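Researcher: I'd like a structural prediction for the single chain below. Treat it as a standalone chain; there are no partners to consider.
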Amino acid sequence: MKNRIILIYKFWKIETLITLNNETRNNHIIGDIHGHGKSLQQLLEHLGYQLIDGVYQHPEKHRVVFLGDFIDRGPTHRLVIDIVKPMIEQGHALSVMGNHEYNAICYHTYDGEGNYLRPHTHKNTKQHEAFLISYPDDAERLAIVEWFKTLPLWLELEDFRVVHACWHEGKMKVLNPYLNEDNCLTDEGLLGIFNNVEVSSIMQVIDQVNNNALGGGEINPHMEQKCL
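Model: Treating it as a single chain, here is the predicted structure.
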């Protein structure tokens, strides 16, 4: 498999694009969109994707693998979700969960004692502000949060592995009991994580790693099989 790495920053406002080529199709791996829907549109069209019946798809059957972090910061959250959600649901893209989706899930989930798993502090609310403003209707926003839960924490595909931060088999093994067969967090698993001090601390470590994994501007090409 021949790997071609392209780092894209200021122009696209999307942190990383990695193209993995195999014999049948390209996998365009796109990370950290953060609410920049117009930049995502431009990038997809630059890569040859076409809007057909309301869904971006590639005429040569190439696909996108998103690394999560669809939300927070940018000005066009609805556009991002309107693009990525149907692409994933109709098989033109895959995705893993980013720490911003995980944080949003916790922000909207009660702990069973009348509090939220992610406290509604000024700092936390400010981080989600752009997402909250984009979806002022509670029911609509909760439906998007429910969709976030369908995003796996990691993917192990035939040619490569995908995770938002770093592939750490030890931590993944500890998390496995809280996930379904698709490596997605279950409602029971989410609460179980927060009620288990050991596992909760691991999730915090993963969240912190996620926040720094792609932000430095450098990717080691020799690590692509383990950290995407």
